[in-house]
Structure prediction request, 167 residues.
Amino acid sequence: MSGGKAIYPGSFDPITYGHLDILQRATEMFDKVVLTVAVNTQKKYVFEADERLKLIQACIENEPWAHKVEIDQFTGLLVDYCSQKGIYTLIRGVRQISDFEYEFRMALMNRRLNNKVDTVFLMPDEELTFVSATMVREVAYWGGELNHFVPKVVADELKKKYAKKDD
Ligand code: PNS
Prediction:
């Protein structure tokens, strides 16, 4: 499959190798992928939206597929953002069955809110199926090794964030 545009929404708090794997796969399927930092009201974020955007930019800038990615942010309903952009295909990564239940409900809710909006689920490399931003933050909090889960630029910022807890 190739062509068209898609939106890859998420919290990206922070971006991980799992997200980057999904993003790269999406760029192989679509001409343009708009990665957008959105607000999940169920979450309390560690990084401000502009910090997350900067980290995403730093992680992708040297990738050969970076020209296919636009980085953006929004606050509000995803379906409204889709209408604003005129892009009705959403990308979401699904790591395991336990993710699927929530993702399935969200995809159907989005489609009920706007019938044009459909979601494409992509699976990351199996080596990354256990990686989540939540667990990465937990490892960072306790000073664990982060290099397998996030690029160095993200690991460095996480370390800085959590170094403050010891002050
Ligand atoms: O990375 P996340 O936290 O799983 O991403 C979830 C996100 C931000 C994509 C989702 O919460 C979202 O779309 N938020 C905007 C409000 C909205 O449209 N929610 C979905 C319909 S209830």
User: Anything to note?
Assistant: The mean pLDDT is 95. Residues 9-11, 38-40, 43, 77-78, 106, 109-110 surround 4'-phosphopantetheine (CB under 6 Å).
